Each structure stands twice: as structure tokens, then as C-alpha cells.
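dude i think i finally got it to work??
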Amino acid sequence: MLEIELFQVTAGSEKPANLRKVLQLIDGTEADLAVFPEYLMGVPPEGLTADYVRSVAEPLTGEFIGSIADKLREKGISAVIHAYLLEHGRVSNAAILIEKGSVRAVYRKIHLFDAFGYKESSMFAAGSELAVTKLGGFTAGLAVCFDLRFPELFRALALRGVDLFIIPSAWYRGPSKEEQWYALTRARAHENVAFLVAVNQTGSLFTGRSVLVNPMGHALVDLGEGERSIRVAVDPSEVREAREKVPVLNLLRRDLYREWLATP
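look at this
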């Protein structure tokens, strides 16, 4: 069993205040894994800009990421956080899995949010590599928010053995956006017969509605709106049982995924 705590929070524009909030929440959890939303370092009231992102971005060795890693080492637990990751003069929109203080996986968002009038590609460099790692009894794969609209990414992760998708998100409000969130999170879980954890920001800009979906496409929790958290235990044997009932991964055309399945 793996105990996961979903932390649906609002990040303000001040990076130090956001860091203090994250550290306090980690300090208070008894879960094995804490999951936080996208844009965790900060969001101005009017939304992200390239200048803002550049002003708060940092490398893996920076204070924001390093302080969280230190707290996780102290607590002896893991977390998936989000960072504006500065590397070689470029900033990535990055999900980072840190296990007991050590960085185990970094995912740089492949599908940038250039839709609904937004243009993340003006702020971030797109990634190109999958991120997969062992976590407890699971094989975890990382994605970020807008990636949910690209089923081939999740199928590629599943074909690399992933049975737990973890997706920090900042799903903007708008017409039908909650319905799209519901449909996509449930579909990505069930079509790959895997658990899916999607933790969203809340507040004036974002929808909330963080979910944990089981391999049969059922949302075990929905955090609604507002800042809140919940702890849920998940069992890898449930994936095995579901994949015996719905063996889609054994029936598909693997040649269609040859490029994604290449050894990194």
C-alpha cells in the first residue's frame, strides 16, 4: 500500500511564502507521498508572464527545490512538486519526484499550454523525454496538466510499466473546463488501467477538483474547490486485478509506439 496525500493549494505571487506553505504542509503529513500542483513557485494575480517565470526560476540546486528536499529527507517521505526549472539558460515547466530528499525523476513538460488564448511556449522550453521511476510497489510516471489532452504520452508511459500517473496541474477556469478535466483524467486512467493522481491549483484562476482515479476509471476522491487536502491509500494489486479483467495493454499494436518505447 502507498499512502498519497493530495494538496490542493493556491500559490500566490511571492515565492518565499509559497515555499513556507509547502514546507508546513509536508511537515504535517503522515503520507508516504505528497503531491502538489503545477505553478507551485508562484502565480501573479493576472496569471503567468515570461518575466515573472524568469524572475523566480531556479536550478535543481536552488533554495526552493533544495529546501523541500531537505524537509522530505527529515520526514523520510516522498513528494512530487513543480518548479520553473532553470537549466543552461532555458526554463522548463517541470514536475519533480523527490524520494526522501533525493531527486528520482524530473519531467520537463512536453506539451506546452498554447491554447485558450494562453501561450506557455513564450515562457518555457518544451521537454522531450518521459520520466519513469519506481516508487513503493508502483512504477510512477510524471506528466503535467495540458499533457492530459495527449493520450499517446500516457500510453507510452504505460508501455514502460507505469501503473501510477502523477500529474501536477494548474487547469485554468473557463467554459466546460471542469467537464474536460473530469473526462480526461478518468479516460487516461482507465484506458491504461492505472491509478492517476492529478492535483490542481485552486483560487480565482484555476478550477481545483483534484482527483485520484482508480484503474477502472472511478474517481475515488474529488477535492472540489478551495484549499484542502486528503490522504488516500492505493494498492498495486488493484492494478494487477484490473489488468486481468481489462487486458488492453496486451492487445494493442505495440509497433505504433516504437519511438516512445526506445530505450532512453
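The chain has a mean pLDDT of 96.
im so relieved honestly
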